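User: Could you go from structure to sequence for me? I need the amino acid at each position, not a summary. Structure tokens:
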């Protein structure tokens, strides 16, 4: 009954218009490399000040939904993730585009983005407080074990070569050490360069590794034609109802992974899409097809990163803890209207929360409709000759890198990581492992050091934690299985 009343509260022209407009804005920001849902939320947060609380917060949630989903457009069409949450979408989405199936790839990704988002919304509505209570039991020991498991898992993304995956991941970890140490405040590995005191910003690193390296590769490959492949028209979303049912074996675990990772503060969609992709690849009967334009990989990535939104909102609304930068902006939106998310909010402003739940569901529906209507426009991008398209893309890359901190130095960082990414691709090192190592390493280091400080340097209390022990065992199993799989591939 509370949810029905929530739908009634938002079923008016002004709220519905704001939700649709928020999704549209989010899609645009998510599709442009370097911009993101966080950028859009930061820019549009001030305009919610004069709105009613339901309208303002519904608008922010809609921007979040559109921003996270919009990254699939550039990931599939250009091989450049619009946001960190769409990194794994490139692996199979872009190969499908190169063989003329860009429209099909977009349709499938849009559909499963919607389904993943709705899964998160339903769990948020009915099980949010219970799940958040369990997540609250996570301390430094558990976070350290979970992040170690995540790093080990995504290191297996290198087409069976775990050695290259681990080397690439370790490179990302090394790059993350540059700057001021968060615990001791000492400056590390800056070599006297003042601009490095804050470390490398994620946005220019991401643009450099994926976008600039791709542009360098396109420019270096003189044998490739200037025209992008033709896109075949698809009916509906490019996938039949029977195929959707068959994909439940990937959809369900990817949704759960996305939801769980979203609940854990600080990890979010940056890692959930890669973890879901890796899990589905490991359990697939045909893992060799992943990375060649296989829809299973596309579905795993897009399902997980949209289910992550529900998880992030669970921890925000029930405990008042923002899981990532984007949800910190939504938290600010609550505070602008004099509201503090947490357990008491369900008692004092329950009507508002269920209106937000309803707005979240409507935002996912708007995302599905707007991106489906935009399919003909998106696919026309592929008809633009590469000679004209690449300069526009690199211009967006420069804007995206600069907008991260309004520093020219970040453009230099972007170019540097573009060269690094190009060299790694040339020698078949996985770029995703480097980026995930860079993203998760600060959390790994911080929680490891907090754990050791709590135990006075002893490792046994860390292992004795049941949840941590479970993830440590899972990490060992993952390493053993990866090595076993690699040895089988070599024998073949």
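Assistant: Here is the amino acid at each position, in order:
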């Amino acid at each position: 009954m509370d949810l029905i009343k929530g739908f009634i509260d938002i079923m008016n022209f002004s709220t519905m218009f704001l939700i649709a407009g928020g999704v549209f804005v989010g899609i645009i920001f998510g599709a442009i490399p370097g911009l993101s849902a966080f950028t859009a939320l930061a820019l549009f947060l001030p305009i919610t000040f004069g709105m009613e609380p339901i309208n303002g917060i519904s608008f922010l949630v809609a921007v979040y939904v559109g921003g996270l989903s919009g990254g699939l457009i550039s990931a599939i069409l250009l091989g450049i993730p619009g946001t960190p949450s769409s990194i794994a979408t490139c692996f199979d989405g872009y190969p499908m585009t190169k063989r003329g199936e860009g429209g099909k790839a977009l349709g499938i990704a849009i559909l499963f983005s919607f389904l993943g988002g709705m899964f998160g919304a339903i769990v948020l509505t009915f099980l949010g407080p219970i799940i958040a209570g369990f997540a609250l039991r996570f301390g430094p020991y558990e976070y350290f074990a979970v992040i170690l498991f995540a790093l080990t898992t995504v290191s297996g993304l290198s087409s069976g070569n775990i050695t290259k995956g681990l080397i690439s991941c370790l490179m990302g970890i090394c790059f993350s050490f540059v700057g001021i140490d968060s615990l001791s405040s000492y400056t590390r590995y800056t070599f006297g360069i003042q601009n490095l005191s804050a470390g490398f910003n994620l946005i220019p690193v991401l643009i450099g590794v994926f976008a600039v390296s791709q542009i360098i590769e396109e420019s270096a490959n003189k044998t490739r034609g200037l025209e992008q492949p033709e896109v075949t028209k698809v009916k509906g979303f490019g996938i039949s109802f029977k195929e959707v049912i068959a994909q439940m074996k990937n959809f369900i675990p990817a949704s759960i992974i996305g939801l769980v990772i979203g609940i854990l503060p600080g990890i979010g969609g940056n890692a959930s899409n890669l973890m879901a992709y890796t899990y589905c690849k490991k359990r697939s009967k045909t893992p060799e097809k992943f990375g060649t334009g296989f829809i299973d990989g596309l579905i795993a990535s897009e399902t997980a990163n949209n289910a992550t939104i529900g998880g992030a909102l669970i921890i925000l609304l029930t405990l008042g803890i923002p899981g990532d930068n984007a949800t910190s902006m939504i938290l600010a939106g609550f505070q602008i209207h004099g509201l503090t998310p947490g357990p008491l909010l369900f008692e004092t402003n329950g009507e508002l929360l269920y209106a937000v739940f309803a707005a979240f569901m409507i935002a996912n529906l708007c995302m599905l409709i707007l991106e489906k209507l935009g399919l003909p426009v998106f696919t026309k991008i592929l008809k633009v000759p590469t000679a004209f398209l690449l300069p526009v893309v690199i211009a967006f890359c420069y804007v995206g890198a600069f907008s991260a901190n309004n520093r020219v130095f970040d453009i230099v960082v972007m170019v540097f990581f573009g060269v690094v990414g190009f060299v790694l691709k040339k020698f078949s090192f996985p770029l995703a492992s480097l980026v995930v190592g860079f993203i998760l390493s600060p959390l790994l280091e911080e929680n490891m050091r907090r754990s050791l400080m709590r135990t006075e340097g002893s490792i046994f209390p860390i292992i004795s934690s049941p949840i941590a022990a479970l993830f440590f065992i899972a990490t060992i199993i993952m390493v053993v299985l990866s090595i076993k799989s690699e040895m089988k591939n070599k024998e073949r």
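One structural detail worth keeping in mind: The radius of gyration is 22 Å.
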